[in-house]
Amino acid sequence: MSEATFFLFKALMDIFTIGVVFNFLFRLLKVDYYNPLVQGIIKAVDFPSQILRSVIKPIYSLDMSSFLVALFVQAGAFYLAAMAGSLDYETIKILIWSTYSVILLILKMAWWIMLGGIILSWVAGDNFHPAIVLIRQMSDKLFKPFRIFLPPMGGLDFSPIFAFILLNFFQAIFIQFAVESGLPVWLSVGF
After folding, report:
1. Which residue range forms the structural domain that includes residue 89?
2. Number of domains, the chain
3. Widest CA span of the chain, in angstroms?
4. Which DSSP symbol is given to 156?
5. Along the chain (191 residues), what's the average pLDDT of each consecutive run of 10 residues?
6. Do 38 and 134 contact (CB within 8 A), yes or no?
7. Are 107 and 167 in contact (CB under 8 A)?
8. 16 contacts 41 by C-beta, under 8 angstroms
9. Side-chain half-sphere of 143: how many Cα atoms within 13 Å?
10. What pTM value is reported for the model?
């Protein structure tokens, strides 16, 4: 397999993984499924998760079938890298790397969603475009646990500060674990 072909397939697998992680986050955060953007992403990537979902039921809001699909797609991408000669093939190591890669992708997407929600609350507070509504809805659900401890004061919401601190803490931990496991950073979709 040539290097160009490998990177093409790796890019397609990473895009599919991002869609599956969005599906995971949609179910975790219980977004509005009537949003056309949500429906489009779910139609594009949910078929493998539906098959697994018939066997593995969600635990509360955690859709483990979507997580496992993302994990297997990333494991396939690492396997392709091993077949292309970019790294050595070890099954356990590839599964560990793909798990770290998916977790880091989830944390990175949550970071961008929270940042997008903050920016959109300033510049597009009354816009009802489906993408804007989705980002605001997802960011509000991510900030909600922090608003219990720190309600808005005088029109200012300080909960995003604590959400970002906690998210950066988890990112630092998982990046350290991933690097110590030998994860090739250039191959991981989560970096």
Report:
1. 3-187
2. 1
3. 60
4. B
5. 80 94 95 94 93 89 92 91 78 91 95 95 86 94 89 81 94 93 80 70
6. yes
7. yes
8. no
9. 22
10. 0.92
